[in-house]
Amino acid sequence: MAFELPALPYAKDALAPFMSAETLDFHHGKHHNAYVVNLNNLVKEKGLEGKSLEEVVKASYNKPGFEGVFNNAGQHYNHNLFWPAMKANGGGAMPARLEAAIKDGFGDVEKFKAAFKQAGLTQFGSGWSWLIQKPDGKLAVSKTANGVNPLATGEGTPLLGCDVWEHSYYIDYRNDRGKYLDAFLNSLANWEFVASRLA
After folding, report:
1. For 53, how many CA atoms within 13 A lie in the half-sphere containing its CB?
2. Is residue 91 classed as helix, strand or coil in its secondary structure?
3. Which residues, 6+ apart, have CB-to-CB distance to 72 below 8 Å?
4. CATH of 21-85, one of 3.40.50.150, 2.130.10.10, 1.10.287.990, 3.40.50.300
């Protein structure tokens, strides 16, 4: 079955002023859609039809000749987590279970946010900042380049990913990645979705 662009779980203008309808038009409607179209063409070429997205990500990561498959599969997977990880009037208080896990992993919520923001700021070029649950159950922050993700690397289960490619923030924040990361954590993050991914 062909991979499909998921519908946004909110109206295009719902995240304004922190993420504009224009950004969502380009980011979801053009960038993410292009990954899906490319991926469907590439899986046919490489004999990966019928596999789940997770299987394609793992099978193509660091495999010579499969770079195009991985780039598009990784970005499709990453964005499938990105859209529901935001909501109108996001940020704010976390569900108790998630807050407890964050405090266990980082000391307190503000230390987690500082670490997550730092990961996003120090990711040179395009990539992602992640909150992950490691195999031992502990939470940690990581960052990846381009379309790489913690599923591919085996580092842990991604709970929250913030896209720090320029197309994610340039329309609304120009070159101020830090301001975008602050808005993502404090005004957009859907902590209920993040909590639902905890093991």
Report:
1. 21
2. coil
3. 35, 36, 38, 39, 42, 147
4. 1.10.287.990
User: CB count, 10 Å around CB of 65?
Assistant: 8
Q: Which of 88, 66, 68 is nearest to 76 (CA)?
A: 68
* Main-chain dihedrals φ then ψ at residue 2, nearest 5 degrees: -70, 145
26-60 tens-digit pLDDT: 999 999 999 999 999 999 999 999 999 999 999 99
Q: What is the pTM of this model?
A: 0.98
Q: How many CB atoms lie within 10 A of CB 64?
A: 5
| pLDDT of 1 | 86
CA distances from 161 to 2, 37, 66, 145 (A): 24, 22, 24, 12
**Identity of the amino acid at 114:** A
